[in-house]
Amino acid sequence: MKQFIIYSLLLFAVVAFGQEKDKALPKANDEFAEKKFANAEADYRISQSNNPKKAIASYNLGNSIYRQNQIGEAQFSFSRAIKNATIRPEKHQAFHNLGNTYMKEKNYSAAVEAYKNALRNDPADEESRYNFALAKKMLKDNPPKKDDKKDKKDKKDKKDKKDKQDKKDKKDDKKDKKDDKGEKDKDKKDQNGKDQKDPNKGQDGKPKPEKAGISKQRLQNLLDAVNNEEKKIQDRVNANKVKGKPVQTDKDW
Q1: Alpha-carbon distance 96 to 63, whole Å?
Q2: pLDDT digits (tens, 9 = 90+) for 118-131
Q3: Fewer CB within 10 Å of terminal CB in the chain, N or C?
Q4: What pTM did the predictor assign?
Q5: Cα(44)–Cα(59) distance, rounded to whole angstroms?
Q6: CA separation for the pair 26, 19 (Å, rounded)
Q7: CA gap 47, 41 in Å, rounded
Q8: Burial class (CB in 10 A: 0-12, 13-18, 19+), 10
């Protein structure tokens, strides 16, 4: 309870300065003091629209919104107050209360940075120093967890990217294989075209002239004729041998 009181304390501080020539601002401050936070918010918005460059309306608007437990909107208003602040006290108070919103969300790392900036603008403020130390302790005891959704998304993105690359690689491999097959088929076709040329045709595709020579039948006829001639000669030789042989008689010499 003490911790909550400490880091919420400045929500009640500095809601009254800068009221000159702005009738909506003092009315909103009175409503805030009476804990009519919704009415105060409406008048602070009027004040902010009349003085968009002043930090006070945004700062007090952030306080009234915070009191209605609208933490995100309160952060926006305090951040706007920081942007428009021209003096250190304004920056200090806006940073301090911005740190309170982060503590409410248990965003301790952001709270540490906010309180650190508050101390840069007012190093002597004990409340900011206490809250800064408290935020650091809470951060140490509660280190930020990994965002499971983000982690899953990152994994999914990596997987999708890998699948896409694998698909592309497969497509490229398929194309390369197709090209290689086409080249091989072409080479094979060319080779087959060369190997299977008609032996009776020349390189220009025209029929080759027949070689001069004797057909088998004609050669056989010649051989037969030679054989017949040799037989005739042999028969004549044999006949002459018989003719020249002495004739035997019965006379006894």
Answers
A1: 12
A2: 999 999 999 999 99
A3: C
A4: 0.55
A5: 9
A6: 6
A7: 10
A8: buried
